[in-house]
């Protein structure tokens, strides 16, 4: 409700004793209350009237006069008054900040502290104010020195773009003694360049800063009618994910990250920090995360001065890649910012998009330039008019006329001159006024005697020429505005390169990067699990964010949140950390269906279930229990030996069963019948390999991360000992495993599965010899970066080929451009040597460029008879949900051993005869059985190759 609406309501009668009235009306209903009229003199003594009047005034004042910037000049009132004061003080020299603050108080009577803070913030943005002295450090959060010690003056950019008294609207200051600008005539999108943050009554404004050059490019694009996009850029650098920026509208968000690099395997370096943070806050958040056990670090060193340098030293055994992700997940190394573009437009707060704000600013700039041109044109026309008038007055010697000399009054003189000018009036651009004639009378005799007619003509010609130029610019105002922006970019753009890298961030799952800061224990007898049961059996390391899966002997299982001590139930069979959507951990189970039912064998994965809800491995029949159980982190399939209880006519009491013959199905599947005879015991004969084969890996260049989700470039199928080769454009190479937490730099030239026998051909420019060289080599396994270009960092990688018989074309340049192109067969030119070898010089002549040609020879393919017998993909085997494929271990590192639980039974065997046909439940989610086909394939392969298969 606005102020007018309050004033239009009927007043409540207020008698002398208001307290007595309040007592009498205490029983009145709320609907009968009448709002007092603010104009009533007695209302100021009524509490509700005071709130109506004062609150609306206060809210309006804070919004319009304190916290929210104006859309046209991009400044809050205090900032505008500071710049106006600095312009009044400007003489090209530095002024003490204390003097500027005191001068500003003529327009802003809110104390020196608020003015000083606002001035320091303006100076730290490094755009409008040229600072001298200790102005603090936005990187460390250190404050500026006292105002008496630091100095400031307006920057050249501010003088060029912010001020013009001829186009400025003015108003009286708060005390009426001075004039101050209503809005400064800023001819630049200053609001978007500097950004702003303010909190008013009932609303707030948070506009992020943008890049200087990109703003000018966007203005030019808008004037040309082209589309444009704007994204934030911060002085502190770092990187930003703008996928949800939403053009700066409310509801949007951006993620900002620090720049973290690896100095070595035990040290991380933070060289850029997120916007809105500083090194002090960042280090505090890192220490806090370390104290909570989220990350494992020894110490943090802060070497920040002009540039950020925070060194994070890791504990022994901590993964540097995993720690980087943990820093993003648990510290201020990653911050989410929600922009809210609230500005004052037409004396009202409005919420706009960034693109709309830029268009308004650009159109306003064009209007200001037009106004300046019209003022300039008017001034030149006025100068042309009076110069012409003066020339006629002097050349025609009007001041020597008898009528002029005989005139006794001023009016007579004016009338005489006006009459003599009558023949020339048709050539003037405007009418001759009395003031113009009086101005002619003020010309001194010395000037008349030295009057130069030719020089006057030259001045008139130049003025006419300039007027035509200004008129042309007015007629082509859009082109003139574009030229204005281009001139600003050419003059100042080199000082403002983009500092914040725009990229897509991968989603970091906190539970996957948190350090195992707790130990999990179990009390099998009493049915408790937890991290506080120090005297009970140790299970594994875990974090305080993990989920725990528990299997019971009766076939029940559930997932619970890790706790200090938690009762889950007796008869615990197996306990471990649960990873959601882990389709590579497969459970191999043999269970008895009911008290008298058959024995089933099944393999299944638990991808995702509801926490604290109970599920069943069996079909839920009373008396069911698990006879054999193993947990296999990479879908290993063992061979078991089954011993039956003797009974009449049962000749074979012992047989073996290979779990690889059993398909991996859904967790609710019934399984296949193992036997209908009573089992005496089940024992492990020998362990087997994974039935899922290798892990298929992709590399997403947008986020520079590996993934299993088929995003980006396919690298191949990886087994536990396989490695990834990375070659950078700087000539450095190294190998890594295929852990999803690995971090890679953006200058990757080659990333692929490493093959030790692959031959590489390299053309390089040797900075020591200043010649082009060719060398061929095979890479050695190393996790430490090695340079294939040599020791000189100035050497350049020209071409890198993995062809078996590559060919290169050398094109000559300079004074050797006339020479015929040289074609080099690399295989014939040089043999395969170490990557550290210098290579062979291609030529001593000047080279313009080197191109790779299509090879003429190819290596004959070698037929490979050794292959994996099982070709089913991971999706075909798991039968689970295809959304997500995360794995606790799937990182190319050592795989944990399978957990095996054997259960024996001594009950008497039954006389039922086993059937050959496998029975299955009609409602289970089963993939086609592959066991028999795999077994047949394995026999064929063994017969042909005489070798054992991988599985």
TrEMBL record:
Pfam families: DNA_topoisoIV (PF00521). Belongs to the type II topoisomerase GyrA/ParC subunit family. Residues 871-888 have a biased composition (Acidic residues). This is DNA gyrase subunit A. GO terms for molecular function: ATP binding; DNA binding; DNA topoisomerase type II (double strand cut, ATP-hydrolyzing) activity. One of its GO terms (cellular component) is cytoplasm. The keyword DNA-binding applies. One of its GO terms (biological process) is DNA topological change. Transmembrane segments: none annotated. Residues 16-32, 894-903 have a biased composition (Low complexity). Keywords: DNA-binding, Isomerase, Topoisomerase. Residues 1-34, 861-939 are annotated as: Disordered. Residues 68-488 form the Topo IIA-type catalytic domain.
